[in-house]
Amino acid sequence: MHSEEHQELTQNDSDLVEKLRVDFARKNKNLFQDIRRAIDTSDIKTAHLLAHTLKGTAGLIHEQVLAEAAKHVEQILASGETPTDAMLSVVERELTRVLEDIGEVEVPYSHAMLDKENAFALFDKLEPLLLSRNVECLNLIDELRQIPETAVLCRQIKEFDFRTALKVLITLRAIFEE
């Protein structure tokens, strides 16, 4: 890989991570309260799902400490136990730190470059292929490249990391739907 090509990938990655971070901040303002409420009302299934989702999304935006804290809580809930207040306060502290770090940013998103109809049609074709881990999705990479913000997604497909690619696809769909 040529260095300028690598540079471009990294730039696209950091642009996407920035958008994912903004999206994360918008959607997760009350997440800790939601987890706490689910635990307090013994809705362990919901609490587990929320912790699991937090673990994944925190990982996507490169917030490993938060991802680890969420993973810890998720594992405790999975085993049918209740996480301690100390564990939960680590999640709360880290989530608060990440949200403050991201701040009240409103990144303008350029829709000019985006043919939504085309993007969604392609996403609809891609999603079942990723779900079934079908290598046919490699054939869609050239088309995907025409859509802004898909560099990370294309790389994950090329690396056969279909699970992460699916998460990114779902996030991109959510960002484009706005």
Task: For this entry, give a set of tags.
178 residues; mainly alpha; Four Helix Bundle (Hemerythrin (Met), subunit A); 9 helices; disordered N terminus
Write the layout of secondary structure elements.
Elements: H1 3-27, H2 31-40, H3 44-60, H4 64-78, H5 85-102, H6 116-131, H7 141-144, H8 151-158, H9 162-177
Helix pairs in contact: 2-3, 3-4, 4-5, 6-9, 8-9
What does this structure look like?
With about 180 residues, the chain is an all-alpha fold. The protein folds into 2 domains: about 20-100, Four Helix Bundle (Hemerythrin (Met), subunit A) (Up-down Bundle), CATH 1.20.120; about 115-175, no CATH class. It has helices at about 5-25, 30-40, 45-60, 65-80, 85-100, 115-130, 140-145, 150-160, 160-175.
What is the structure about, briefly put?
By secondary structure, this protein is mainly alpha-helical. The chain has helices spanning 3-27, 31-40, 44-60, 64-78, 85-102, 116-131, 141-144, 151-158, 162-177.
Task: Please indicate the count of domains.
Answer: 2
Please state the CA-atom Rg, rounded to the nearest Å: 18 Å
Q: How big a fraction of the residues is strand?
A: under 5%
CATH topology of the largest domain: Four Helix Bundle (Hemerythrin (Met), subunit A)
The mean pLDDT is 83
Low-confidence segments, ≥5 residues, pLDDT <50? Answer: 1-9, 105-112
How would you classify the helix and strand content by structural class? mainly alpha
Level-1 CATH class name of the largest domain: Mainly Alpha
Level of helix content?
over 70%
Distance between the termini: 35 Å
Tally of helical runs:
9
| Biggest beta-sheet profile | none
CATH architecture identity of the largest domain? Up-down Bundle
Order of helices and strands: HHHHHHHHH
| Broad shape | elongated
